[in-house]
Design goal:
Pfam families: Methyltransf_11 (PF08241). This is Methyltransferase type 11 domain-containing protein. Helix content is 32%, strand content 14%. Strands 2-1-3-4-8-5 form a six-stranded mixed sheet, sandwiched between helices. A two-stranded antiparallel ribbon has the order 6-7. The chain has one domain: Rossmann fold (3-Layer(aba) Sandwich). The chain is elongated, with a radius of gyration of 18 Å. It contains eleven helices and eight strands. The longest helix has 17 residues. With 258 residues, the chain is of the alpha/beta class.
Length: 258
C-alpha cells in the first residue's frame, strides 16, 4: 500500500503524521539501550526512520523513510532522510557498521524481505525496537480500547519471526519510565489523561484503524472513570510507579561470524 506522501506501510501518515514529532520525542532510557546495542559502530543505517527519534548524534547516520510527512519533521541537526523502504535498500552488502529499526517493522509490507535486506547491508549489529504482541494485554488500555490493543496485536510480528530471519539474536524487555518522552501507547501507563488528547492518540497509529464511534466510546469510558475516580481505584498506583514492564522489546542480531 502507498499513500499520497509515499507512506509504504499500513498507516496513512498524511492524515495522522502532522504532529507526530511533538508527541514522539526520543526517551533517554530507551535511547541508551539502543546506543548500547549499536556498540562502537561509526556508520549506522536507520530504516523506517520517521522523524529521527533515537538516531545517535555522534555517528554517521543514513536514514531511510518512505513518508514525506515524516521526513519533513526531522530536526535540522539530523541528516536528510532518503525516500525508500526496507524491502529494497540501495546499498552494497556489508555497507554499514550497524543498523537500527525503531517502531517500524510492524508497518513493513514484506517483513521477511525487509529484515533480510537490513542484515545484508550491515556487517555489525542490527537493533530492532518493537513490541511483543503476546504481552500487549498487560496494559490497562485493553479495558477501555480493546480494538486498539487488538489492532496492535495483529500488526506487530512475533519476536520469534524476527529471530527466524535475522538468525541468532538476544532480546531484552525495555522497561518504560513514568515520564517517558516518547508517546507510544504504553508510555502513558501512569498518565491516563493523555489519552483524552486527540493529538496524542493520533501519534499512535493503531487508533487510526478503529472507527470514529469506537474511538469516541473508548475516550468517553476513560473520561468517565477518571472523573468518578474508578480508574484510580483500580490503577492509581501506576501514577507513581517508576517503570512499567510491558510489551516493549529490543531485539539485537549480531553477524553470523560473531
Amino acid at each position: 500500500m502507498a499513500f499520497d506522501d509515499g507512506s509504504a506501510g499500513d498507516a496513512d501518515y498524511t492524515a495522522i503524521g502532522a504532529d507526530y514529532a511533538a508527541y514522539r520525542q526520543p526517551e533517554p532510557v530507551i535511547a541508551a539501550k539502543i546506543l548500547e546495542a549499536l556498540g562502537g559502530a561509526r556508520t549506522v543505517l536507520n530504516v523506517g526512520a520517521g522523524a529521527g527519534s533515537y538516531e545517535p548524534l555522534d555517528r554517521a547516520v543514513t536514514a531511510i523513510e518512505p513518508s514525506a510527512t515524516m521526513r519533513s519533521q526531522r530536526p535540522a541537526w539530523l541528516s536528510r532522510a532518503i525516500p525508500g523502504s526496507a524491502e529494497s535498500l540501495p546499498f552494497p552488502d556489508g555497507h554499514f557498521d550497524a543498523a537500527m529499526a525503531t517502531f517500524t517493522v510492524h508497518q513493513w509490507q514484506d517483513l521477511d524481505a525487509g529484515l533480510r535486506q537490513l542484515r545484508r547491508v550491515t556487517r555489525g549489529p542490527v537493533a530492532v525496537l518493537t513490541c511483543d504482541p503476546q504481552l500487549l494485554h498487560r496494559f490497562w488500555l485493553a479495558e477501555y480500547a480493546a480494538e486498539v490493543i487488538a489492532t496492535e496485536a495483529r500488526r506487530y510480528p512475533a519476536p520469534q519471526r524476527i529471530a527466524r530471519v535475522l538468525g541468532e539474536v538476544r532480546s531484552e524487555t525495555v522497561e518504560i519510565p513514568l515520564d517517558c518522552r516518547d508517546g507510544f501507547g504504553e508510555a502513558y501507563y501512569g498518565r491516563p489523561e493523555m489519552f483524552l488528547d486527540p493529538l496524542a492518540r493520533r501519534a499512535n497509529s493503531a487508533w487510526s484503524f478503529i472507527t470514529a464511534e469506537q474511538e469516541a466510546a473508548a475516550v468517553r469510558s476513560l473520561a468517565d472513570d477518571l472523573a468518578s475516580g474508578a480508574w484510580d481505584a483500580r490503577y492509581g498506583a501506576l501514577r507513581s510507579q517508576p517503570f512499567f514492564a510491558g510489551s516493549l522489546l529490543l531485539i539485537v542480531s549480531e553477524p553470523a561470524e560473531h
